[in-house]
Design brief:
alpha/beta, Rossmann fold, 8-stranded mixed β-sheet, two-stranded antiparallel ribbon, 5 helices, globular
């Protein structure tokens, strides 16, 4: 499979690239600066995305909103729209989005990001990722998309190959913890690329 990975040098993007290549897939990495052997492009530039996506089987969007204190939602939505338009121009239907956990529900109609104990440090980013999910749901119906939310806690760790798949609710273990390593998240994402079991919906992965 030929995969275009936008955001290839982030914590999750790097691990998705490693996992996909481990399985023999061809990965074209894309970053804003074109560093580390990646192609240079802005996700919001539909023409650039289309040119890079041409000939690929799938696109993975793994970009995060700005973390410099500036607005988070408009830049991420611009990136999302650029990628959706770029895929259409390139004739590529398969899109997998590295999403956030904040939009997962802890109770019917209550998102994790809206709970009192949600950390302020991550709130703007979580709201932006939730807005991206809304955009994909509203505007990507003509594409084969999947939005994958991690567990509430994700960080570098062990590659075990073990994970569970949920839907729109926070997925926790028997001790009430919602967590997954970035390595196992990458396994779940590449599994979805290979199996196409969650096309047209959001899933979450956790231990």
């Amino acid at each position: 499979m030929r995969i275009l990975l936008i955001g290839a040098t982030g914590m999750i993007g790097q691990r998705v690239a490693d996992e996909a290549r481990r399985r023999g897939h061809e990965v074209t990495g894309v970053t804003r600066r074109g560093t580390g052997g990646t192609a240079k492009a802005e996700a919001g530039d539909a023409g650039a995305v289309a040119a890079l996506a041409e000939g690929h089987d799938a696109v993975v969007l793994a970009v995060a909103p700005p973390r410099d204190g500036s607005e988070t939602i408009p830049p991420l939505l611009a990136a999302g729209r650029g990628v959706l338009d770029g895929l259409r121009r390139a004739g590529v239907r398969r899109l997998v989005v590295v999403g956030g956990a904040g939009s997962l529900e802890v109770a019917p109609g209550v998102r994790l990001v809206d709970t009192p104990d949600f950390p302020d440090l991550y709130k703007n980013e979580a709201l932006a990722q939730g807005a991206l999910l809304d955009l994909v749901r509203a505007e990507a119906g003509d594409l084969d998309w999947t939005y994958i939310s991690p567990a509430a806690e994700i960080q570098p760790g062990e590659r075990t190959g073990a994970y569970r798949v949920g839907g729109d609710q926070v997925l926790a273990d028997a001790a009430g913890q919602s967590r997954i390593s970035a390595e196992d998240y990458a396994i779940a994402l590449v599994d979805e690329l290979e199996k196409n079991e969650a096309v047209g919906r959001r899933i979450t992965v956790a231990y």
